[in-house]
Structure formats: C-alpha cells, structure tokens
Amino acid sequence: YDGDGRVEEAIKLYDRVLELDPAGAPLTQYVRFLTFFHYGRFAEAERAIRRSVELEPSANSCAGLVMLLLTAKGDREEAARVLAAVPAAVRNEPRIIWVEATTHLHRRDPEAVLRVLSRLSADYIQDNWFSGPKAYFAGIAHTEAGRHEAARVEWQSALAIVDASLKETPGSWFSHLNRGQLLAWLGQTDEA
Asked: Whole-angstrom Cα distance, residue 113 to residue 125?
C-alpha cells in the first residue's frame, strides 16, 4: 500500500502487525518510520523511530533517528548524542559509519569525521541510504580543515574506485552520481 501512496492503509497494516507480533515491534516501528519519513510526516516518523530505538537500538533505528534529526529538525547536537549511545555491537557497521561521518560534517568537526572513517576497513560503503567510497567523506573533511591537497588526493582515490565500479556495473545511477560529485569537487565541472 505504501508504494501506492495509500499511507493510512499501510499504517493500519503495520499497527496490526504490532498487535500480532510484539517481538517484531522494533522492525515494524522502523518500517512505520520509513513510511512516515518518505511522506514528510516527520512528527509521526519521529515517534515511530524513537520507539524503535527504545525497544532495540540497531544500526537501522539509530541511523534513522539521526537522519531525521539532521534533515527534518536540523539538530546536529542531538544527532551526535544519539550516535554516542549507539551499542558497541553495531558501532562499526557501515550505516553507522557514514551517518556518523555525515553528522560530524554537519557539526563542522573534520577531525571527528576522519576518526570515524578510520573504523571502517573497506574503501567502499554499500548501504541502502548511501553507496560510495569512504574517501568522498574524507575529502570533504580535509576541505573543511583547510587541507585542500589532501582532499584532492582523497577524491582522486574515490574517483578511481567509482570508475572501476562503473566498468563492472555501467548502469549504476548511484555510481554515476558519485562520479559527477567527485569530478565537481575536483574542479572538473564540465566533465561532471
């Protein structure tokens, strides 16, 4: 129903799932959050995601709450507090890494961004909400810190990763988006 824009019907079904499967409530609340968030119903989205985090703080629920705080409320300090309380078991998951890096970028704390990125051994972040090289974030952090040459090196590294990815999956819209953004950061706006 959600895909058809029939939000009220979808929510009624999710409410019924909550009644029938209380053990699945953290996930059901997360799905309710996604529905409300998608349709710009931020107060309802916030209630659902806070309930999901309260029941079981997962990478999905914590990241969802942080993204709502950053995008719908502009509250980067509360977003940082939520991330500080993320359970150790999910702290190094790619979703938490990129969301935490984004939060520190919003807080204008480039050194924190680089510390967060160092927790991820992979060069590429593959997530439903973001896909791309972690060097993308590192380049922005270096720019924020005034280290423009270090940023250029990061973005060139990221571009090489994206170009290799495009050889394997030439139809990837997200890789094309990454490539355009990286070229723009590198000052190659005509090619971007």
From this structure: 15
Q: Are 80 and 103 in contact (CB under 8 A)?
A: yes
**155 CB-near residues (< 8 Å, 6+ apart):** 135, 136, 139, 182, 185, 186
Contact of 135 with 123, CB cutoff 8 Å: yes
Cβ atoms of residues 59 and 100 within 8 Å: no
pTM score, whole prediction: 0.87
DSSP letters, 34-58, are: HHHHHTT-HHHHHHHHHHHHHH---
d(CA 9, CA 20): 17
Where would I find the beta strands (DSSP E) of 26-146?
A: 124-126, 131-133
Query: CA 90, CA 14: separation in Å to the nearest integer?
Result: 26
- C-alpha–C-alpha distance, residues 45 and 14, integer Å: 13
Structure tokens belonging to residue 49 = 């995601």
In which region does residue 187 sit, left (phi positive, over 0), alpha (psi from -120 to 50) or beta (all else)?
left
Q: What is the pLDDT of residues 7-39, one digit of tens each?
A: 889 899 999 999 999 999 999 999 999 999 999
CB 95 within 8 A of CB 60: yes
Whole-number Å distance between alpha carbons of 39 and 58: 23
CA distance 21 to 14: 10
